[in-house]
Amino acid sequence: MDLVKRYIAAVQRELPEAKRQEIGRELNANIMDQLDALAEQHGGALSEQQVADILKTMGHPRHIARQFCPPAPLIPVHLMPLYKHTLFMVLGVLFVLQVVFMTKGWLTGTDMGLLLFIKGLASGFIADAVFGFTAITVGFAVAFNGKQPGSCNTSSQWQPQDLPPVSAGWQHISLSDIFTDLATYAFLLLLIWFPLWQQTFAGAAPASEIFSPLALVMLMWFSPVILLGVLSSLWQLRQRIWSRQSLALNVLVNLAFCMMFLLLAASGPLLQLDTERWARYFSPDAFQDSIRISLVIIALFPGYEVLRDLLRLKRMAAN
């Protein structure tokens, strides 16, 4: 029975020291019962190969050890929903902040093109996301290590009456959609107002204009709608379920965005270009025409959301 002893010793090496003797005795009893039953069937002593076959059927010692003593996960299972929610919230905030900082750096006059802006945004967010993921994971592992499922007060202080009503699957609002909208609104507000703020309050030299004068005036008048979109996203972040009121507000915001994009496309040049510098590379007029076509295409996205939300409102009214 040397194989049985070696097998049990291999299992014990994978176990915590405090449980090795107890589990070793239990495992030895189980193995001996199987060997005795097999020996009765064959009517004699078992060969070493038959014993090896029994042990092989039971599985690898590491697998057996995990059955007796499952390893504790880094994040307890009962805290995984809270962990994921916290992680998504922090990553969303970091993404919005990264958009703000990169847009600020772009508008301060640094020599940064569109590709460098996108690269800086991606690399900066990845670095922040890695740090945020590590900090949250380590924080949960340290704060809740060894605690039982009932020890988390946030999961015990609830009332059935506070649960939201039964709703369709589309009524759940994704965190990624909310933070994408917030990042877009922050980018637009900085793009419109940062040069003026820098010139007026920071006392810096006037920054080079990005938009044409007419487009800039239209966007400034449109800024309250962008702020309304920010408030709508914050409301969605608090509720996380579409209601008639939030859907109606979303329809108004998207309808305003759709109309603004179409007005910008029809009002003339959007950007103020250095035609002398770029004329040798491409035609500025053709570039402005492509921008107008892009604005019309972009207007289709909020237009689609307007139609989608109107159908959802109709569906909710029918119920």
From TrEMBL:
It comes from the Bacteria. The keyword Membrane applies. Keywords: Membrane, Transmembrane, Transmembrane helix. The chain crosses the membrane at residues 82-101, 121-144, 178-198, 210-235, 247-271, 291-307. This is Uncharacterized protein.
